[in-house]
Amino acid sequence: MVGADGRHSTIRKKAGLKAEDYGAPMDVLWFRISRSSSDPRQSFDCLDKGRILVMIQKEDYWQVGFVVKKGHVEEAKAQGLDSFRNYTQALAPFLKNRVNEIRSWEQVKSLEVKMNRLKQWSGNGVICIGDGAHAMSPVGELDINVAIQDAVAVANILVPAFKKGRPTSRDLKKIQKRRNFAVKLLQRMQLFLQNQLIAKAFKGKGKPKIPWFFGIIKDFSIFSVKIFRLYLAGHTLGDTVNSSYYDFCEYDGS
Ligand SMILES: Cc1cc2nc3c(=O)[nH]c(=O)nc-3n(C[C@H](O)[C@H](O)[C@H](O)COP(=O)(O)OP(=O)(O)OC[C@H]3O[C@@H](n4cnc5c(N)ncnc54)[C@H](O)[C@@H]3O)c2cc1C
What we know:
Layout: E1 2-3, H1 10-15, E2 19-21, E3 26-34, E4 44-48, E5 51-57, E6 61-69, H2 73-78, H3 81-91, E7 109-111, E8 116-118, E9 122-123, E10 126-128, H4 143-164, H5 169-202, H6 212-215, H7 226-233, H8 246-249
Parallel strand pairs: 1-10
Antiparallel strand pairs: 2-8, 3-6, 3-7, 4-5, 5-6, 9-10
Helix pairs in contact: 4-5
The chain binds flavin-adenine dinucleotide (FAD).
């Protein structure tokens, strides 16, 4: 059985698989604001004295992350929508009246940030993947890509195993072996950035300094670090589904 049931995975719990927790200093309130032709042309962060606003450029809107200290989502909401809009505008003044596009808390989705990883991704005939095996921090905006690459590894390892008969626990372990290094490396980079930038920004001593090696990346933004993307795009560590497996996996509509 493949446990792809997310960060609160029931399958993981039932299989008795244990995760190591790495902690995260923040939670995030996500919302959208329309883009205007006069806006800056790339993703970026607004960091100032204990406040962080992450602006991720999408086709015709900004995906905005209002970053709060861990466990402070309800407190931020309790201060009211006006205060939320004011904070947003203070950090990104070019938005001006567009902050009024946030009309209710229903437009604002809260993400309880977690970072953890299973020691053993498989056991008792179960393999967990995606958030069920490793909740990622939003740093680098990688989560969904990493979950998809896990699924690709599952296809490439389990389809040939099913063709031969029944997958064994060794086949399940091969999936972790295939993915563990990449996930571990990306989580370590996320932890580093969380501690260097986000935790320091919360201490409220002005703008934290971006480490020089990230500073050389054009349009650096904490939540969309391009170096991560380059890594993910790299087929040396990433996977693509072997096209000969498509027929095997074909959805028959039932
Ligand atoms: C508000 C928010 C914003 C995010 N923004 C980004 C972003 O910008 N970029 C990014 O890369 N990632 C983002 N993420 C994270 C990203 O969504 C996840 O990392 C990714 O979806 C993980 O994929 P997954 O398949 O492991 O789990 P999920 O996408 O969580 O899928 C799990 C599925 O299992 C189902 N399920 C769970 N339990 C059961 C059950 N008992 N029975 C049946 N079905 C069940 C769920 O309904 C769900 O459909 C965001 C997450 C949140 C909450």
